[in-house]
Specification:
The chain contains 12 helices and 15 strands. It has a 6-stranded mixed sheet with strand order 1-5-6-4-3-2. The radius of gyration is 31 Å and the shape is elongated.
């Protein structure tokens, strides 16, 4: 294969306990950006001298090439894994088979090379030149996998890499996030007993404010040291689509890949997978708001009838900013890049309902700051240990006002999402919003005059609930007047202190001058 014909490559890199930090972006940029030599060592087919033998499948068009000194038993197991992957992805989900590569590798079969790879690299899929005569931007591909890694990892990585080969047979222009999220999905389906795929989930979960379509290299505002793995952790979104809107066997994912195909004469990634969602009758703005609550139901908040069907640990908890119930004073805030949201993402706040109240009533306000901005607000109420979760859409539009209640001991999560249309191939852009949360069972400072005709107070409601400690500084003279009085008092105290200090300084200076004069007269 001429190296200049290399179109795209994906790699799985698996350092110890690191899961999916990988060379995907480096290889993609190197090959698409006009620097294929940067990726040549890892993305070329092995030389004949590096190979000892091969095994052909009797049921699918796949050939496994064994590197020198690779045990034949490993080749047999790898071929069995590829046949199982084919049965799930092509036979079960309905993906099109990989495109034939002519005489490359000896015949038209999909070639899989079991050869040592650079340290930390588990497997790799390389797309060749565009097929040219199939009416789409698609290509054949070949796989490389390191036979020295544990067999269970080799197995799931072959499921992952076969998915990339199937993707390239449909669309070589699709986004990194969608490519990797849907490839990791097949690892889980292949070996639900392994948790290797979960290693990148915390990276994704930490950032609900990241656009749903982004990847670790594109979303630079929150890139951590090392290699960000947002695109691998985004498997949660692929799982959500499959479990909530699909058949549980990946058929919807295959349909979405087919819906994102571009013709040969279309240079851009249009349609993309977001367009394919819309064509399937699935609006991304609605999915995003539903997904933010679904993805929060993991770890200690997991419930039996909602959220991911698989069990995720506490490190997969959704990244939220906790706020005390005692601070819900209705003050208007302006979000920033640290809290989001960006396009098609959500800012999430969490409130723990105090044990001192039976019910916490909250008014939520959100407003757009941009002319074309569309917002949605959703809530998730869970009582840890109860096994019950309540998710609700509170409102949509450029300005949203909503009321809700949460019982004592509950965790209340409020997601403020930017659901404006977005292009999955453009760089993420921050979309600031204004918002406030008001706890209405407390007489807050600066809350304004009481609302007239508020109705008759509830009979036998008991003594009024005392405000939280942070808001006990109130005055019968009115909070605004009290603050003005305190300001004047503080100003007077400051003036008095300045006068006292000035007077003391003058006295010390006079004493010093007198002492110096006396000392000088005795020398």
């Amino acid at each position: 294969m001429a190296l200049a014909a290399l179109a795209l490559a994906y790699a799985l890199v698996a350092p110890a306990a690191a899961g999916h930090p990988c060379a995907t972006m480096a290889l993609r940029e190197a090959t698409r950006g006009g620097f294929p030599a940067m990726a040549s060592a890892i993305t070329e087919r092995p030389w004949a001298e590096e190979l000892a033998s091969f095994n052909d499948s009797a049921t699918i068009p796949v050939r496994v090439h064994l590197g020198v000194a690779v045990d034949g038993a490993i080749g047999t197991q790898a071929l069995a894994a590829l046949e199982a992957a084919w049965a799930m992805q092509v036979g079960g989900a309905g993906f099109d088979p990989p495109l034939p590569d002519g005489a490359e590798g000896g015949d038209q079969r999909l070639d899989v090379y079991l050869v040592p790879l650079p340290p930390g690299t588990g497997a790799l899929t390389v797309a060749l030149a565009d097929a040219g005569d199939d009416g789409r931007r698609a290509s054949p591909a070949f796989l490389k996998a390191d036979p020295t890694q544990p067999m269970e990892l080799l197995e799931v990585y072959l499921h992952h890499e076969l998915q990339h080969a199937l993707q390239f047979a449909l669309d070589t222009r699709e986004s990194v996030m969608w490519s990797e999220a849907t490839a990791v999905y097949w690892e889980l389906r292949a070996r639900p007993d392994l948790d290797e795929w979960q290693a990148a989930v915390p990276d994704f979960q930490r950032h609900p404010q990241a656009p749903i379509f982004t990847d670790g290299a594109s979303f630079s505002p929150f890139a951590h040291a090392g290699v960000p793995r947002l695109e691998y952790g985004a498997v949660l979104f692929a799982l959500y689509l499959d479990e909530e809107h699909g058949d549980g066997a990946g058929a919807l994912l295959a349909d979405l890949w087919r819906g994102s195909i571009q013709a040969d004469d279309v240079a851009d990634n249009e349609p993309d997978w977001l367009d394919a969602l819309a064509a399937e009758g699935l609006a991304i703005n609605e999915l995003l708001v539903d997904f933010v609550g679904w993805r929060a139901l993991v770890g200690p908040l997991a419930v039996a009838d909602d959220g991911p069907a698989v069990v995720l640990g506490g490190d997969a908890m959704l990244g939220v900013e906790s706020v005390a119930a005692s601070t819900l004073d209705g003050a208007l805030e302006l979000s920033d890049e640290d809290s989001g949201p960006f396009q098609l993402s959500c800012l999430v706040r969490q409130v723990e309902v105090p044990a001192s109240v039976a019910t916490l009533p909250v008014q939520v306000h959100a407003e757009a700051t941009l002319p074309d901005q569309v917002l949605a607000v959703a809530s998730l109420v869970t009582v840890p240990g109860s096994g019950v979760a309540t998710r609700a859409l509170l409102g949509e539009g450029s300005v949203i006002d909503a009321d809700l209640e949460a019982p004592t001991g509950a965790l209340l999560q409020l997601a403020l999402c930017d659901t404006s249309p977005a292009d999955a191939d453009l760089a993420p852009v921050p979309r600031p919003i204004r918002f406030s949360f008001l706890r209405t069972d407390v007489d807050w400072p600066d809350a304004g005059p009481p609302v007239e005709d508020a109705g008759t107070p509830e009979v036998d409601a008991g003594p009024p609930i005392p405000p939280d400690p942070i808001c006990t500084c109130q005055s019968s003279g009115g909070p605004t007047n009290m603050r003005k009085g305190m300001y004047v008092f503080g100003l007077l105290v400051s003036v008095v202190m300045l006068v006292v200090r000035s007077s003391r300084a003058r006295r010390r200076r006079k004493l010093y001058e007198r002492s110096a004069a006396d000392e000088g007269s005795t020398r």
